[in-house]
Design brief:
The protein has helices spanning 3-23, 33-52, 79-90, and strands at residues 60-66, 69-76, 97-104. By secondary structure, it is α+β, with helices and mostly antiparallel strands. The protein has one domain (27-104): Histidine-containing Protein, Chain: A (2-Layer Sandwich), CATH 3.30.1340.30. The protein has a three-stranded mixed sheet with strand order 1-2-3. Strand 1 and strand 2 (69-76) form a beta hairpin.
Length: 105
């Protein structure tokens, strides 16, 4: 292989690799690929905990996660339901904070 061609291919490969890694980086308003996957797992675990609790099955609770911070929205029947959902969410591994935006029906 021609050394000049090899050098150009090596530079192109390094450039492509750096672009790919930069695209996966995060900042304050966006998530990197790894963080997005982590948040997806957290959301799934929170939903399993909340909807797996028999007393909350009829509640209309939505779960969103961004960088480990979980936001709970929707409607529940009582303050006890709100407290229970928040506690179950806090107990999920990986949850850094919980924002409660649930409302009583």
């Amino acid at each position: 292989m021609n050394p000049s061609l090899f050098s150009r291919l090596a530079v192109a490969a390094l450039f492509a690799g750096s672009v790919a890694l930069t695209a996966c980086a995060s900042d304050k308003k966006t998530e990197g690929t790894g963080e997005y996957l982590d948040d997806t797992v957290i959301t799934t675990k929170v939903k399993a905990a909340v909807f797996g609790d028999p007393s909350l099955k009829s509640a209309e609770i939505n779960v969103e996660t961004f960088k480990g911070e979980v936001q709970l929205t929707g409607f529940v029947s009582s303050q006890a339901d709100i407290d229970k959902a928040v506690k179950l969410t806090r107990d999920v591994e990986g949850v850094k904070a919980v924002t409660n935006d649930m409302q009583l029906k």
